[in-house]
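Cross-check.
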Amino acid sequence: MIPKKLHYVWFGGNQKNELIEKCILSWKIHMPEYEIVQWDENNFDLGTNDYVSQAYAEKRWAFVSDFVRLYALREHGGIYLDTDVEVFRSFDDLLDCGAFTGFEKYIDTYSPITAVMGSLPNHPWISELMSEYDRAVFEDGYTNTQRITKDLNEKRGIINNNMLQKFDDVVIYPAEYFCLPSRNGYAVHHFNGSWLSGSAKFKKSLRKLLNLK
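Predicted model, tokenized:
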């Protein structure tokens, strides 16, 4: 069974905004027995991997998080959550598998979500995803979402159709579980983008204004 641990990543020492504080509080309310671990400069060795050390030097926190979330799951197991994921019910009944994630919706397209991922320690899928960073070049700008989508589509036969799917002992849930508001959902991903640049945040806000999310 997946351990009752919640991992999140917070490098750079910036102050958490109101939404992030609200989301973390929701984890504590709905999963009070879960251990919550903040991964930052104090408990992660940035020399572990060249990719992550280069991303950190450039203050590209999202790319640091891409690696560290996988590291936390491989080493300790549990559930990784982006800091803008608000939880509405316990994840207890999702723990009886080797690993899980879900789909998210952007405009009219579904793709695997990396904002919510859970696994056993040393799960082979997580370990294989991590191994890609041994040869990854930070400058290529290739995100974790792209890596995981390619892995699931090309290696595991997962189709981006928002249907519940499985491979081996891994479960991929519909977007209503972790991304979209739903009566039976577990969480909502707010797409806060705390790591975005100013121009990217402006574009994101414009998309929201035009109802293109």
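Residues 61-76 form the longest helix (16 residues). The radius of gyration is 16 Å. Passed to J.P. for a second look.
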